[in-house]
């Protein structure tokens, strides 16, 4: 299975740190944010990686190269300009990802999720999402996990972690351009075609300088 790291976001909430640096290249402790993900994916056997980029994207290519030093092969999907949003970015990268299900991970999260689990759970339907506890800054959550299925409405909503496995067929009716992923997922959920799981381990969305600082302090104590 191939994996895609979504690294094309502009990181407006992370300013001024992202005024001259793409968010995935910001340092958290001894490593850049994206390096934690690459190393975790490599340890789980994800060798073929695709990384999209837009904002200061060339910096990402220069920093990571072809992935050899991480034990992976990295191919890039440059978007230019303002980027294509999550849906458009994944859709553009599908020729690199191939015809089989693939994992997509937001490039601005930190997690200890065991990606080996994903390799054993190829979705039988259009998508499989990993949900986590609602963080304090987003207490309402995103989706409801009902057994093994995910619904857009329902009680006890959880937060979408930014980690999911998708079949290319989810994007079958899409056209090139800029568009979000959420409407595609909600449509598939309405047809009962999205499965999911609840992960109770460590997960952090690094969306602001304060959260980046908290992660750095936590990593230092974690060691």
Rounded to the nearest angstrom, the radius of gyration is 17 Å
**CATH superfamily annotation:** Spore Coat Polysaccharide Biosynthesis Protein SpsA, Chain A
Q: Gap between N and C termini, in Å?
A: 31 Å
The total count of strands amounts to 13
CATH architecture: Alpha-Beta Complex
Task: Describe the protein.
A seven-stranded mixed beta sheet has the order 5-4-1-6-11-8-12. Strands 2-3 form a two-stranded antiparallel ribbon. Strands 7-13 form a two-stranded antiparallel sheet. It has one domain: Spore Coat Polysaccharide Biosynthesis Protein SpsA, Chain A (Alpha-Beta Complex), CATH 3.90.550. It contains six helices and 13 strands. The two termini are 31 Å apart. It is α/β, with parallel strands linked by helices. The model has no long low-confidence stretch (mean pLDDT 93). Helices cover 26% and strands 25% of the residues. Helix 2 links the parallel strand 4 and strand 5.
Q: What does this entry show, briefly?
A:
The protein is of the alpha/beta class and 223 residues long. The protein has helices at residues 33-43, 57-64, 85-97, 116-119, 182-190, 209-222, and strands at residues 3-6, 27-28, 31-32, 48-53, 73-78, 102-106, 109-111, 127-132, 144-146, 149-151, 159-166, 194-198, 203-205.
List the helices and strands and how they pair.
Layout: E1 3-6, E2 27-28, E3 31-32, H1 33-43, E4 48-53, H2 57-64, E5 73-78, H3 85-97, E6 102-106, E7 109-111, H4 116-119, E8 127-132, E9 144-146, E10 149-151, E11 159-166, H5 182-190, E12 194-198, E13 203-205, H6 209-222
Parallel strand pairs: 1-4, 1-6, 4-5, 8-12
Antiparallel strand pairs: 2-3, 6-11, 7-13, 8-11, 9-10
EC number: 2.7.7.13
Keywords: Nucleotidyltransferase, Transferase
GO molecular function: mannose-1-phosphate guanylyltransferase (GTP) activity
